Fold this sequence. Notes:
Structural class: alpha/beta
Distance between the termini: 16 Å
Number of strands: 14
Strand order of the largest sheet: 1-4-5-6-7-10-11-12
Number of domains: 1
Shape: globular
Strand content: 25-35%
CATH class: Alpha Beta
Radius of gyration: 17 Å
CATH architecture: Alpha-Beta Barrel
Helix content: 25-40%
Number of helices: 11
Amino acid sequence: MQLNPRIIPCLLLDGEALVKTTQFADPVYVGDPVNVLSIFNSFEVDEIVLLDITAAHRRSPAPDALLAHLAEECFIPLAYGGGLTTVEQIGRILKIGFEKVVLNTLLFDDPGVVRDAVTRFGSQAVVASIDVRGDGSMASVFVRGASHDVGEDPVSWARKAERLGVGEVLLTAVDREGTMSGFDLDLIGAVTAAVSVPVIAHGGAGKRSQLALPLHQSGASAVAAGSLFVFQGTQRAVLINYPARPQIVRLIASDPTT
């Protein structure tokens, strides 16, 4: 486990609003993206992943003007994913001010573009997003907003992404996304054991104490969460929040498996 693992808010952009989904469905409005990013600016956040669910379905990224405005207002390193299909689009996103791009469906539709992006911009700028439905031997990778089964298991898919040269993997358990029911530690452990690139565990975080589990128990290099950082309480009232650095240090230093 890294000495300073990253704890990453994963935010969902839907048009010009931020929303939170449950199992990639039923989006709930959580705020204006500029306002939300401004709140996160006041916390010691390592980085933010911004996934554009509208762009993912449209297969075209958000307008440059909107993304440039978000990058300008956010002082935290940003990664953007959603609808990217060409090296030129990826280059524009990075030039706008995002540090990384997150690629999902493109790994299935045109892996050559992923390889070209790595060659041109470096592996550190390219994240492979792997969405998984099911568990155990029934686990399968999905693309196009988790609507299309590619017919491969997450371990083999992660290895393919690594061979394309990506710098890290964002691994999402779709069945747990937004449920706050806990991480799929077996899935995370299987993928981290199969690849040498960092794996970001995502999907299911319900308590701050759970953030350390994928790090200690499953070999993840980072954890990402959405609901945990935008909701509070059983009624899921919208409240943008993030642990203070001393709390993160305590959470990570304390092995929850012992």
